[in-house]
Each structure stands twice: as C-alpha cells, then as structure tokens.
Design goal:
By secondary structure, the protein is an all-alpha fold. The protein is built from 4 helices and no strands. The chain has 2 domains: 80 residues; 45 residues. One of its GO terms (biological process) is protein secretion.
Length: 125
C-alpha cells in the first residue's frame, strides 16, 4: 500500500514538473508571438508565466527540498561572523603588498633569465 502511494506521488510530481516546463515554454513562445505588443507587456506576461511555472514546480517533492535547502542556506548565512571594516582593509592591504612583491620577484627572475638567454645565444650587446 505504501509503495502505491509513493508511486502515485512520484507520478504526480513528474506531471507537475512537466506542466511547469510546458507553462515555461508557453511563456517563451508567447513572448515571441506577441511581438506586436509593447515590450513591457510581453516582459510582464513572460515574468508572470515564469512565476506560475516556479509555483507549480515548488509544489513537487523536489521543489520542496530545494525550498528547504535555500531556507537552510539563509539560516547559515546569518550565522557567519563577517569581518569588520578595519579587518577587511588590513587584509586587502596585506594581499596588495603580497601581489606587489610577487610581481617584482617574477619581473626580476624574468629579467635575469632574459639576460642569460641573450648571453648564451650571443645576441647580447
């Protein structure tokens, strides 16, 4: 009995997702078929169709899981300890200095190798 209910739920979810895709495709096709209408009307109709498609998709089990995931992610973002302005500026300064020193080192190595290649190949002045 439980397997039958699970299969029916899965079949209904599949139908709802299919309906959602059909609504989305209809919105896109309608956007191009109504080219005589002003752009803002076409965009409004397209956004409405996308909204309806999303609502239908969220009524499925995968849709509820996605909604739950984003809700959990939002909760986790609130738990993050964000750096202060001073910490951000100090970190940025350290990174800037590290990049500057690395680029100077790479320039020096490149210059030395260039001069060595010129000396070995006899193209030096």
């Amino acid at each position: 009995m439980n397997v039958k209910t699970e299969t029916q739920g899965s079949a209904m979810d599949t139908l709802k997702l299919l309906l959602s895709v059909v609504i989305l495709i209809a919105g896109i096709v309608g956007f191009y078929l109504l080219e005589a209408q002003p752009l803002w009307i076409r965009l409004l109709a397209l956004l409405a169709m996308v909204g309806v498609a999303v609502v239908v998709a969220l009524m499925t089990d995968p849709g509820r899981r996605i909604k739950s995931f984003f809700s959990s992610a939002k909760t986790e973002v609130r738990k993050v300890v964000w750096p202060t302005r001073q910490e951000t500026l100090q970190t940025t300064l350290v990174i800037f200095i590290a990049v500057l020193l690395t680029s100077l080192f790479m320039w020096a190595v490149d210059s030395i190798l260039f001069e060595l290649v010129r000396w070995f190949t006899g193209h030096g002045g």
